[in-house]
Amino acid sequence: MLLIDCPCCGVSGEETEFAPGGEAHIVRFGPGSSDAEFSSYLFDRKNPRGVHFERWRHAFGCGKWFHMARSTQTLEVFGVYKADVTTPPQDILDRVEAAKAEGRVK
Amino acid sequence: MSEVDMSLARPLLEGVSDTGAGGLKLSVQPLRGMVTLRADLSEASVAAAVKAAVGSDMPGVRKATDTALWMSPDELMLLMPYGEAADAVAVLTEKLSGVHHLAVDVSDARTLFRLEGSAAREVLAKGAPVDLARDKFAVGDLRRTRISHVAAAFWQSGDGPDVFEILCFRSYAKYLWEWLEESSREGSMPGVL
Ligand SMILES: [Zn+2]
């Protein structure tokens, strides 16, 4: 069970109040890109055993989208952050590195 | 907007159910006027408009007053007598002229239930992922969440001990009524809250 603090409304809830939106920070390739780039944009997803950056929506709550970094292995949540960024904020990357250093995640 | 035939306006469900456990009583509330307001809730002009429209101070995050429910960081549900929603929208529209906002009469979109009795919070806790311990959820606290599989909001009313108001989409009302009845059955309470 994931325990999630929504960064938009501040509610702490468990995952059934939220809806997953898949891998985050996917770079869009549109017209003019190569077939390989477009195919990668549409279909290639990381699916790691470990740290994963994801989009989530507080579907049954405030309705807002946001980002979350978590471990797919232990369900540890490293942090949540705003929807309108293309890379994770440094403090969350730092927490991920700390968890790696402590051996909690690959 | 088309004319509303008030003679047709009625709650989707009628009735009161005394389902037993802990003197629980479940009832469908009479129709209420409801207005969705979306705006920057931190703006003083928005607070003033809410005050003018329904007489309420701005509710805090996850809080309910008698006439204003916090729904999200930029959304309130305002309550008023049925049939007065259009007036409330007119007041909001006038007070918020020039302020980015949206005010819509949604009076017929939702059904309001009331669940009261000492076991009411145990019933809700069976279906909602919310900490309903007495020191965590008290009078004026509100959550917009799910109950069983359906979207709902509920808050603890100040009308008495253990009185909860529950708001759900009208199309889910029968389902939620049956779920609440089933979950209120004698002998089915965990007895922990
Ligand atoms: Zn939220």
Largest interface: A-B, 13 and 13 residues
**What are the secondary-structure elements of chain A, in order, as H or E?**
EEEHEEEH
Instruction: Tell me the number of structural domains of chain B.
Output: 1
The count of strands of chain B amounts to: 10
The N- to C-terminal Cα distance of chain A equals 20 Å
Oligomer: heterodimer
Low-confidence stretches of chain B: none
CATH architecture heading of chain B:
2-Layer Sandwich
Provide the gyration radius of chain B in Å: 17 Å
Biggest sheet character of chain A: 4 strands, antiparallel
Bin the strand percentage of chain A: 25-35%
Task: Give a quick account of the main beta sheet of chain B: strands, pairing sense, barrel closure.
Answer: 6 strands, antiparallel
- Ligand catalogue: zinc ion
Mean pLDDT of chain B: 92
Description:
The complex is a heterodimer of chains A (106) and B (193). Chain A is an alpha+beta fold. Helices cover 20% and strands 28% of the residues of chain A. Chain A has helices spanning 35-43, 90-101; strands at residues 3-5, 12-14, 19-23, 51-57, 65-71, 77-81. The mean pLDDT of chain A is 95. Chain B has a six-stranded antiparallel beta sheet, with helices on one face. In chain B, strands 4-5-3-6 form a four-stranded antiparallel beta sheet, with helices on one face. In chain B, a hairpin with a 6-residue loop joins strand 1 (16-18) and strand 2. The complex binds zinc ion. Zinc ion is lined by residues 6, 8-9, 11, 58, 61-62, 64 of chain A.
